[in-house]
């Protein structure tokens, strides 16, 4: 069976992970998930103080490594993916094994920006959620899960997250096959994607 590669893009806190988890819950071991975020360069790669790193620029990710590992998974070979810490902005020494699966999901804010990566996807989904909703979600998530303060989220949002979204993320929406409104819990959209996956599993 050839793997179906699904890309899920969208702005920060749009609901990409939520959608990926819904698909994982529906298909369990048949789904492998890779986040582009796992491939952030270690902070030692950047020549600026860590509070000035632009985490929303396409050059902040080691995308070539992601492409190489996706190609391996397509060849049904296991990979050892990087592990990244949002709390310390570091790539950890450990790696995690990912087994090949019939459905491979890649999610990330910028995955449709890179031509070579984009061409690997059989289905490109963009989760479209209004900026104010995303910002509110990001504030609570980053404080709860990523050890941030309100002021640090506000500063980062205005200096890099918002301008990079407008420059790179939003334009990549038009590369998608499907644009899903209202975040990651849009049941009708989720059901359509689930049907597409079932068809692939039945036909391959
Ligand atoms: N449709 C939704 N309604 C309410 N909250 C949501 C919805 N989708 C996602 N969230 C919440 O918003 C936050 C960000 O969602 P997440 O799926 O992690 O976004 P992303 O992966 O795009 O950054 C999480 O706390 C999640 O629980
Ligand atoms: O060290 C880091 C790495 C990333 N970020 C921010 O994360 C988001 C992307 O993750 P989502 O789950 O899609 O929100 C991106 O906007 C980066 O700004 C970070 O703050 N620190």
From TrEMBL:
Reaction equations catalysed: cytidine + ATP = CMP + ADP + H(+); uridine + ATP = UMP + ADP + H(+)
InterPro entries hit by this protein: P-loop_NTPase (IPR027417), PRK/URK (IPR006083), Uridine_kinase-like (IPR000764)
Keywords, ordered alphabetically: ATP-binding, Cytoplasm, Kinase, Nucleotide-binding, Transferase
Annotated GO biological process: CTP salvage; UMP salvage
Subcellular locations according to the entry: Cytoplasm
Record flagged with keyword Kinase: yes
Keyword Protein biosynthesis: no
EC number: 2.7.1.48
Domain Phosphoribulokinase/uridine kinase, first and last residues per copy: 5-188
NCBIfam families linked to this entry: PRK05480.1, udk
Family (UniProt): Belongs to the uridine kinase family.
Name of protein: Uridine kinase
Natural source organism: Halanaerobium praevalens (strain ATCC 33744 / DSM 2228 / GSL)
């Amino acid at each position: 069976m050839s793997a179906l590669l699904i890309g899920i893009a969208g702005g920060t806190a749009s609901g990409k992970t939520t959608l990926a988890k819904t698909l994982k819950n529906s298909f369990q071991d048949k789904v492998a998930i890779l986040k582009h975020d796992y491939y952030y360069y270690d902070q030692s790669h950047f020549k600026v103080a860590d509070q000035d790193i632009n985490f929303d620029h396409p050059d902040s990710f080691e995308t070539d490594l992601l492409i190489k590992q996706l190609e391996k998974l397509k060849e049904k070979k296991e990979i050892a993916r990087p592990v990244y810490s949002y709390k310390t902005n570091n790539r950890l020494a450990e790696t995690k094994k990912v087994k090949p699966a019939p459905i491979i999901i890649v999610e990330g804010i910028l995955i449709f920006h890179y031509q070579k990566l984009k061409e690997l996807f059989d289905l490109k989904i963009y989760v479209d959620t209004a900026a104010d909703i995303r910002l509110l979600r990001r504030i609570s998530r980053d404080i709860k899960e990523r050890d941030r303060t309100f002021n640090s989220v506000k500063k980062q949002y205005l200096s890099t997250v918002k301008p990079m979204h407008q420059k790179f993320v939003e334009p990549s929406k038009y590369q998608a096959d499907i644009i899903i409104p209202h975040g990651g819990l849009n049941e009708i959209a989720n059901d359509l994607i689930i049907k597409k996956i079932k068809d692939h599993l039945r036909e391959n």
